[in-house]
Amino acid sequence: MLKQRILAAAVLIPAFLAAMFLLDGPAFAAVMGAVVLLASWEWTRLAAIPIPVSQAVYIATMALAMWLLWVSPARIDLWHWLLIAALLWWSLVLLWIVRHRSDGGPGLPSLLKLNAGYLVLLPAWVALVSLHTERGPYWLLFLLVVVWVADSGAYFVGKAWGRRKLAPGISPGKSIEGVYGGMLASVIPALGFGWALGFRASELLALVLLTVLCAAFSVVGDLFESLLKRQANMKDSSHLIPGHGGVLDRIDSVTAAAPWFVMGLSWIAGGGT
After folding, report:
1. Is the pLDDT of residue 1 over 70?
2. pLDDT at 42 over 50
3. Is 139 exposed, middle or buried (0-12, 13-18, 19+ CB in 10 A)?
4. Which segments within the chain are labelled E, that is strand?
5. Between the CA of residue 46 and those of 49, 101, 179, what are the distances in Å?
6. 0.90 exceeded by the pTM?
7. Residues 214 and 19 sit within 8 Å (Cβ to Cβ)
8. Whole-angstrom Cα distance, residue 154 to residue 232?
9. Minimal CA–CA distance to 167: which of 213, 227, 101, 79?
């Protein structure tokens, strides 16, 4: 298992970095679109849709939606409102998790889960593509580093000092102390990145606060996928990535953090207006 994990990471990480730094906007959007389509197939499994034809229809509608979002003359406005919808969605998910953290809540209907897939995957695609095309690959890399550092910080702090369960009915292994550790760890790349770009104190503070917010919502994304897997009696979303599970298992945190990051950057750049 460890060998598989190392080999998969040794292939996928350089491939993604190459795509991020070498591809232009349309090509990168297409690559991210392919990732979303794989995640869409996994989503149908989480929603208990086993029929191949139904899965194919869902994947096709996701592909059509991404194409329309890319070619639309009103693309900027559509992306903006889709990201706002994502912020509202993830806020509702947070409230649900807080309310049902002990028992996971009642099982969600398959139709609701399928529709939720559009609110999770499409805004994530928009956020990553817009971040890459409008701000450049280094900002995208920064977001991914923040999510990874937050996840790693949460793991190590939780292992060392975790006492209080965060959501025992959803993901028993996570602790409140671990989440705080992850949020605190996320400040480190924010300070380093802001210093490298020569940010003023006010800009650096805004970036740190945004980073901590994104770290917090990365946990929400992780917990939401854990909730769906728990309801579907699945350990992993699939076995597409040897040793790592599925695509959703790798991007669940990013799907929630990315919309907040992109909208937060826009707010900071606009002076809070």
Report:
1. no
2. yes
3. middle
4. 165-167, 171-175
5. 8, 19, 25
6. yes
7. no
8. 26
9. 101
